[in-house]
Design brief:
The chain contains twelve helices and 38 strands. The longest helix is centred in the C-terminal third of the chain and has 19 residues. The relative contact order is 0.09. The radius of gyration is 25 Å and the shape is globular. The protein is about 15% helix and about 35% strand. The strands form nine sheets. Strands 31-32-34-33-35-36-37-38 form an eight-stranded mixed β-sheet, sandwiched between helices. Strands 1-2-3-4 form a four-stranded antiparallel β-sheet, with no helix packed on it. A four-stranded antiparallel β-sheet has the order 5-6-7-8, with no helix packed on it. The two termini are about 35 Å apart.
C-alpha cells in the first residue's frame, strides 16, 4: 500500500481520437499557464498551475545543472515536462527542449558536452532514447527498441548502456482454448499477481545491455533472458535499479526473482552482479529476506552501498545503509547504531562518505555519514524537506527543497554553512501573489504518556480571536512520513485558503521518530494510532480559535481506513468525514489487494487463522463492523483502476452509510488509480471536497 510519492513525477496523458478513422489530434506544447490570482487565495486551478521540478543533475564539472520542469494544462488534461539548464553560479534558466512529449531520465554524457534522455517518439509510438548537445541543439533519436525504453544508465566509459524494456509476460493463453474467439475479452488466470497497481500484467520489464554510441544502440542482450521476473520492479522501479561499476566491466541490478503467489507474498528483492565479458550473474544479498535496493558503487569501485530491509514482508522496515567491500565481500551496516534511516544515497567524490536524506522529527534534512567510523553529520535542515541530493564536491551538494508552503526548487548546500542557496525560483512570482497559511509545530500529549509532533496550519489573515472550522488530517502509508511535504491533492495551503485550521499529527506508525514508533502500527490497526488521532482532535478542539463542533477527519489509503474507523469511534468529535481509496472491510482487503505481503505482515496473517491473536485483533477492528455507530456525513472518493485498494471498498462504505440513513456522497473516477492524477479530475476532486466540507462545517 505504501508509497509516499506526494511530489509526483510528470505523467503524460495522451488524448486519443474519438472514433476510428478520425485524424489523430496533435498534442499541443504545454507551457507555463497564464493564471489569475484573485484575493490572494489558492484555488484548485492555481494549484494545478505550479511548475513541478524534478531530476536535478549536476554536470561532470559541477558548473551546470539540468533538470525537468513540468506544467499541467487543464484544457489538454495532461502534463508535459521539458529539460532546462542553469549554472551553479549563473542561475539564469535556459530551456533546452520544446516538445509536446515529456522528457525524462536525463543524463549527462560525453563529459558533459551532450545530454541523453527519454521521450516518446510519435513515429514509433513508444518511448525511446534521444541525445542532444548541452545547449539543446541537434536533438535526435538513437534507439528503436521494439517495446520502448522505460529507464536507462550509460556506463562510465560511455560505451555501454543498460536499459529496462517490457517483454511479453510468460503467462500465455492456451491457443486451442481461444481458437475461433477473436472478439473474446476473457482472461484465464491460474496464479496470483495477475494485476498490479493499475494494470493487468501482460508485460514485465527486463534489463538489456547494449553497445552505446551517438549513432545508436547495437548488440542488445537481455541479461535476464528466459527469467519470468521483473527488473526494474513494478510499479515504481526505475534507473535506481541499476549501478555501473566505475570500470564499466560489470554492473549491479535489483530484482525480486519470484513469480505469482511467491511474488505476491514476498519483499525479497536482491542485488545481482552481472559481468559483461563472461555473462556471469552472482547474487550479492541472498542471505537477506527483505528488500535490497538502490545500489551505488563508490567512485573508485572498491565498495558497493545500498539500502536494505532485514524483515521479510515488512515493506516499511528500517532501511539499513549497507556497504560491501567488493574484493572481500564483507558487509557492514553503517546505520546499526542510528534509529533512523536513509531514503536515498549518493557517494561523495572522494568516496570517504555517503550523503543521504532521512525523515527526522517531522522533517527531512540532509545528512552525511563517514564510511570508516559511521559518524553522521547534519548538513542542512529546517522547516522543510530536502530530497534528490547530488554531491557537487566532498563538502557541497545540489538538492531539491520543498515545504508545506512551497513546491520543489533546486538549492545548493555546503557543509559547515547554514546558508541554503536557492538556484531556481520557478514559482516565486506565483507564491508572491498568494496569501498562504502559517505552519506551526506543536507537541500533542498522547494517551500513553508520550508526545506526538504535529503540524497546525492556520488560514491566511488568521485572527486568533475568531472561531474556525477544523480538519484532522489522517496520513496514508500507513508508514509514510507526515513531514514538510507539498502535495497536489492533500495540500494544506488550499485547505487553509478555504478557511480551515488543519492539524497533521505524526501518529504511531510513521517514520522519523525511530523504529519502535514506526513499527508500532503493524498488527495494531484500530489501536494506539487511532487514539493518537483522537488526541490530536481533542488538542485542536481545545484551541480558542477552533470551533470544535465544526471538525472533520480526512485521509486517503490508510488515511481512508482511519476515517472509516474513526467514523465508528469518534464519539461526536467529527461533523464530517472524507475518505479516499480507503480500506473499509479488512477481510476483503486481505484477499483483494495485489501486493499481499503488505496485508499479510501488517494485519498479522489471514482471517481464517483463528489461533493467530494478532490477526484476529486486526480483523476485529475492521471499520465495516462498526457502521451501526456511524453518525457523521461522509464523502467517499475512489478510482476504478486502483488495484491496491479496490474501488469496491469505498463503494461498500458509501452503500453502508446510505443504508444506515446517513447523508453521504461518492465521487468515482473510472480512469484513475490509487491517486487522482489527470488535471481535470484533480480539479473536480478539489471542488467536491470543499463543497462537501463547506456544507457541513460552515453552515
Amino acid at each position: 500500500m505504501k508509497k509516499n510519492y506526494l511530489i509526483m513525477g510528470t505523467l503524460l496523458l495522451p488524448l486519443l481520437a474519438a472514433c476510428s478513422g478520425e485524424k489523430k489530434k496533435e498534442n499541443k506544447i504545454i507551457d507555463k499557464p497564464d493564471i489569475k490570482v484573485e484575493n490572494g487565495l489558492l484555488t484548485p486551478e492555481i494549484l494545478e498551475s505550479f511548475g513541478r521540478i524534478s531530476q536535478a543533475l549536476p554536470s561532470p564539472d559541477g558548473k551546470d545543472i539540468i533538470f525537468t520542469l513540468s506544467y499541467e494544462s487543464i484544457e489538454e488534461n495532461r502534463s508535459n515536462a521539458e529539460i532546462y539548464k542553469i549554472g551553479t553560479e549563473n542561475t539564469e534558466m535556459q530551456r533546452l527542449t520544446t516538445t509536446a512529449s515529456s522528457e525524462s531520465n536525463i543524463r549527462w554524457i560525453e563529459n558533459g558536452s551532450k545530454i541523453a534522455y527519454l521521450k516518446k517518439d510519435d513515429q514509433l509510438n513508444s518511448t525511446q532514447l534521444f541525445v542532444m548537445n548541452a545547449d539543446g541543439s541537434d536533438s535526435k533519436r538513437i534507439s528503436e527498441v521494439k517495446n520502448g525504453i522505460e529507464c536507462f544508465e550509460i556506463s562510465p566509459d560511455g560505451t555501454k548502456i543498460i536499459y529496462g524494456s517490457p517483454i511479453d509476460d510468460f503467462n500465455k493463453n492456451d491457443e486451442q482454448l481461444f481458437e475461433g474467439l477473436p472478439k473474446t475479452t476473457g482472461r484465464v488466470v491460474d496464479d496470483l499477481m495477475y494485476k498490479h497497481w493499475d494494470e493487468w500484467v501482460t508485460q514485465i520489464p527486463h534489463p538489456f545491455v547494449a553497445d552505446f554510441s551517438l549513432q545508436g544502440l547495437t548488440n542488445a542482450k537481455d541479461i535476464m533472458e528466459g527469467e519470468p521476473y521483473e527488473c526494474p520492479m513494478r510499479p515504481f522501479g526505475g534507473a535506481d535499479a541499476f549501478a555501473w561499476a566505475p570500470d564499466s566491466k560489470s554492473l549491479v541490478y535489483v530484482s525480486r526473482k519470484l513469480k505469482g503467489q511467491d511474488y505476491a507474498f514476498s519483499t525479497n528483492s536482491n542485488l545481482y552482479c552481472y559481468e559483461l565479458e563472461s555473462g556471469r550473474t552472482t547474487c550479492l544479498t541472498e542471505e537477506n529476506p527483505g528488500y535490497d535496493t538502490n545500489p551505488a558503487f563508490s567512485p573508485d569501485g572498491t565498495k558497493l552501498a545500498w539500502l536494505s530491509m532485514a524483515t521479510a514482508k515488512y515493506e516499511s522496515d528500517k532501511k539499513r545503509l549497507m556497504v560491501m567491500d567488493v574484493a572481500t565481500g564483507e558487509k557492514t551496516d553503517l546505520t546499526s547504531n542510528w534509529d533512523y534511516w536513509p531514503e536515498e544515497i549518493a557517494w561523495s567524490p572522494n568516496g570517504e562518505s555517503i550523503w543521504f536524506t532521512a525523515y527526522y522529527q517531522g522533517v527531512s534534512p540532509v545528512f552525511k555519514i563517514n564510511v570508516k567510523d559511521c559518524k553522521i553529520d547534519t548538513i542542512a535542515d529546517g522547516i522543510c524537506d530536502f530530497t534528490g541530493v547530488m554531491p557537487l564536491s566532498d563538502n557541497s551538494a545540489i538538492v531539491l527543497r520543498h515545504s508545506m508552503r512551497s513546491p520543489n526548487e533546486i538549492c545548493h548546500i555546503t557543509e559547515g554553512s547554514e546558508e541554503v542557496k536557492e538556484l531556481t525560483s520557478v514559482n516565486k512570482d506565483l507564491l508572491a501573489e498568494l496569501k498562504l497559511g502559517e505552519v506551526q509545530k506543536v507537541m500533542v500529549p498522547t494517551t500513553d504518556g508520550k508526545e506526538m509532533l504535529s503540524w497546525i496550519i492556520t488560514p491566511p489573515d488568521f485572527d486568533p480571536t475568531k472561531k474556525y472550522p477544523a480538519i484532522v488530517y489522517c496520513q496514508g502509508g500507513p508508514q509514510s512520513a507526515v513531514s514538510q511535504f507539498w502535495s497536489y491533492r492533500w495540500n494544506f495551503m488550499i485547505m487553509a485558503a478555504n478557511g480551515y485550521v488543519i492539524i497533521a499529527p505524526n501518529r504511531r506508525g510513521v517514520p522519523g521518530f525511530g523504529t519502535e514508533w514506526n513499527r508500532q502500527i503493524s498488527g495494531d490497526y484500530g489501536g494506539q494510532n487511532m487514539k493518537d488521532y483522537l488526541s490530536a482532535a481533542d488538542y485542536l478542539g481545545a484551541q480558542p480559535y477552533v470551533d470544535k463542533s465544526k471538525m472533520a477527519a480526512i485521509g486517503a489509503s490508510y488515511g481512508g481506513f482511519s476515517v472509516y474507523w474513526l467514523a465508528g469511534h469518534h464519539e461526536g468529535r467529527f461533523a464530517a468525514l472524507i475518505a479516499h481509496a480507503g480500506i473499509f472491510n479488512v477481510e476483503a482487503q486481505y484477499l483483494e489487494t495485489e501486493e499481499m505481503w503488505f496485508a499479510d505482515f501488517d494485519l498479522g496473517g489471514p482471517f481464517w487463522d483463528k489461533t493467530n491473536a494478532v490477526a484476529q485483533k486486526s480483523y476485529a477492528n475492521s471499520p465495516h463492523l462498526f457502521v451501526n455507530e456511524w453518525t457523521a456525513p461522509i464523502l467517499v472518493t475512489v478510482g476504478e483502476l486502483d488495484y491496491r485498494i479496490l474501488a469496491s471498498q469505498g463503494m461498500m462504505a458509501f452503500n453502508a452509510a446510505k443504508m444506515h440513513g446517513l447523508e453521504a456522497e461518492m465521487l468515482v473516477f473510472p480512469d484513475e488509480n490509487h491517486w487522482v492524477l489527470k488535471p481535470q479530475n484533480a480539479i473536480l476532486w478539489q471542488r467536491v471536497f470543499f463543497r462537501f466540507l463547506d456544507k457541513y462545517l460552515k453552515n
